[in-house]
From TrEMBL:
Active site feature: 47
GO molecular function term, any single one: isomerase activity
Family the entry assigns: Belongs to the PhzF family.
Protein name (record): PhzF family phenazine biosynthesis protein
Pfam family, one: PhzC-PhzF
SUPFAM superfamilies referenced in this protein's UniProt entry, alphabetically: Diaminopimelate epimerase-like (SSF54506)
Length: 281
């Protein structure tokens, strides 16, 4: 059987083992869909990625992203972790300073010039009104006071997010993640501003992920959707840092900044934790 290079890395934290773990199969060509899904279930991480030769001539590599239960079109921490793993194992981008990743939503550009933080360009995001009946169902399940809700929206950038902006970080922390489970509830994002002069500007939580966890440690794609929502509402004017994972003991940090036009860049650090080879697969 073919020997395949394998990496486990930690994404979106300045501190190793305090972000979101990712498994990366660097040499994934020849694996079937069923083998990829089975291996992702075996790693039991939020996501596992498989790197392949690109089919788009503009791309540097192609990535496929799997949770333990299903394939995803796009995800944030797998984008940064896959990019750093590809570079770590000898990948050389066609354009200096920019890696172009092919995935289920097309080509995603990754800026690697701002070490130790790398940034991906947030994919296009559709924004629409949240279904009122589903909104009420989530509010009741989580015990969120209607007075605590500032804005809601359904955001889609590959994954679909049920997004709640709340009045305070206290309101974000008060939500009980055990009350909402996938697939009855799907991908609930909570967001609120910290007090001025706090170490971070915003607090984010993502509940009911398809990974089967009660809460995702750090979610790049949710943060990307929020950034595009802020941009669409003329609220993404200055760079900011969002904290995530606080309620489950992680130190997630997501850096967000506006680019030219309608571009939002989503950044974080990546740490290579385990490196080796796979066999018998």
């Amino acid at each position: 059987m073919k020997s395949r290079r394998f990496i486990q890395c930690d994404v979106f934290s300045p501190f190793p083992l305090q972000g979101n773990g990712l498994a990366v199969v660097v040499d994934a060509d020849g694996l079937s869909d069923e083998q990829m899904q089975r291996f992702a279930a075996w790693t039991n991480l939020a996501e596992t990625t498989f790197l392949l030769p690109p089919t788009d001539p503009c791309a540097d590599y192609k990535v496929r992203i799997f949770t333990p239960a299903r394939e995803m079109l796009f995800a944030g921490h797998p984008t940064l972790g896959s990019c750093v793993s590809w570079l770590h194992t000898g990948g050389i981008p066609k354009t200096s300073g920019i890696v172009r990743q092919e995935c289920g939503v097309g080509i995603v550009e990754i800026d690697i010039t701002q070490d130790p933080i790398i940034y991906f360009a947030a994919p296009q995001t559709t924004i629409k009104e949240m279904d009122p009946s589903h909104r009420l169902e989530m509010i009741n399940a989580l015990g969120i006071s209607k007075d605590a809700i500032v804005n809601t929206a359904e955001l889609c950038n590959g994954p679909t997010w049920q997004f709640f902006e709340l009045k305070s970080v206290t309101d974000v922390f008060a939500a009980d993640a055990s009350k909402v489970k996938w697939p009855t509830f799907k991908a609930i994002g909570l967001f609120a501003a910290h007090e001025p002069n706090s170490p971070c500007d915003y607090e984010v939580r993502m509940l009911a992920p398809s990974s089967g966890m009660s809460e995702d440690p750090i979610t790049g794609s949710l943060n990307a959707a929020i950034a595009k929502w802020l941009l669409a509402n003329d609220r993404l004017r200055d760079p900011y840092v969002a904290a995530q994972g606080t309620s489950i003991g992680r130190i997630g940090r997501v850096s967000v900044k506006r680019g030219k036009g309608d571009v939002a860049w989503i950044g974080g650090q990546v740490h290579i934790i385990i490196e080796g080879k796979m066999s018998n697969f």
